[in-house]
Amino acid sequence: MLPFARKEELRVVAEEIGETATLEMKVADLREIILGSKAYKNDPESVNNFLSSIVEARKRKEEQSDNLEFEKIKLEKAKLEAQLELERISLEKAKIESVRIDPDASSASGNGNSFNCVENYIHSVRTLMLPIPKRAEGWNLFFASLERAFNTKNVPDEFKGEFLLNLMGEKATNILIYIKEGDVKDYKKIKDTVLREFEPTPLACLQNFQKAKRLQNETHVQFASRLATGWEQYCTLRDVKDLETLNELIVSDKLYQSLDQETSTHVNLKQERGWFRPLMLGKECDLFFTSKNRSFSEVHSDSH
Question: Given 161, 224, 292, 303, which residue has the most CB atoms within 10 angstroms?
Answer without folding.
Answer: 161
